[in-house]
Amino acid sequence: MELASCPICGQLYMKGVIEMCPKCLAQEEENEKIVAEYVRTHHRCTVEEVHKVTGIKESVIYRMIENGRLQECENLYYPCEQCKKIINKGRLCKICMESFLDQVKEMKDKEEKVENGKNGYQSAGMYTKNYDHY
Q1: Could you give phi then psi for residue 15, rounded to 5 degrees?
Q2: Which among 39, 72, 89, 104 is most buried, taking Cβ atoms within 10 Å?
Q3: Strands 2-5 and 12-15, sheet pairing
């Protein structure tokens, strides 16, 4: 374990698996309960609405979503990180996720071409001239 500064309050703590001090972790868990309860009772609510009603900062609610702490709350809607379309699962909407996966595939294909030689053909090795017919 190493000594670290809490990213939320700045207090020193012994860093483990959790990336915040015990006091902020307890507050985070309490905020999670409040947000989860509100979302369960108010269908199709937005992060902005939850913030206004509960007083919990939007950045805290987004962090909970990003860390997967509100996965059971499918009633909570928030913007896609790429195009800002409203979604309720994951970090990207379906279209942005497909685009991302296409880009990853394209990069892998380019890497394979580089590894296999130019134009996607694997080099057969060194060639020599056949002198048998001279």
Answers
A1: -70, 130
A2: 39
A3: antiparallel
Using H for helix, E for strand and C for coil, what is the string for 17-70? CCCCCHHHHHHHHHHHHHHHHHHHHCCCEEHHHHHHHHCCCHHHHHHHHHCCCC
For the chain, the domains span 28-112
Q: What b/e sequence results for 77-113 when a residue is b if at least 16 CB atoms lie within 10 Å of its CB, and e otherwise?
A: bbebeeeeeebeeeebbeebeeeeeeeeeeeeeeeee
Rounded CA-CA distance 20/13 in Å is 8
Q: Give the number of other CB atoms < 10 A from CB of residue 132.
A: 4
Q: What is the pTM of this model?
A: 0.58
Helix or strand or coil: residue 5? strand
pLDDT in tens, 2-38: 888 998 899 988 888 888 899 998 998 999 899 888 8
CA atoms within 13 A on the CB side of 76: 26
How many Å apart are CA 83 and CA 37, to the nearest integer? 28
For 41-71, the pLDDT digits (tens) are: 887 788 889 999 999 998 888 888 777 777 6
